[in-house]
Design brief:
mainly alpha; 110 residues; elongated
């Protein structure tokens, strides 16, 4: 039963990674590409790491499970921070979103 849960988490992780790769190809501007790929690869990595944690706990490798858990925490923080920094840098260099209704950041910059 535990093996089935590990396989489900691995499958979900791989599915999210494939969807993230498709987001890079499908979306039309850097902001939507960044959003789709960052969100999907974050979830994909979390599911793969959860599979590794379950396997490590099942086999008695508790330090490995702790390290993978810490990797999940750092991954969630750094993916969001990195995506924000890339998007802000793109905006400050003049790359505007293609379908922008209201530009709140332009009001702040003036």
């Amino acid at each position: 039963m535990i093996e089935l849960l590990i396989y489900v988490f691995i499958s979900m992780g791989l599915l999210f990674h494939v969807i993230g790769a498709l987001a890079l190809h499908r979306f039309f501007d850097p902001y939507t590409r960044l959003h789709g790929s960052t969100l999907c690869t974050t979830f994909g990595s979390i599911f793969l790491a959860l599979a590794a944690i379950i396997y490590a706990l099942q086999t008695g490798l508790f330090p490995i499970a702790l390290h993978v858990f810490l990797a999940i925490v750092f991954l969630m923080v750094t993916n969001a921070t990195g995506a924000h920094a890339i998007a802000r840098g793109a905006y400050l260099h003049g790359i505007k979103p293609k379908r922008l209704a209201v530009d709140e950041l332009a009001k702040v910059r003036k």
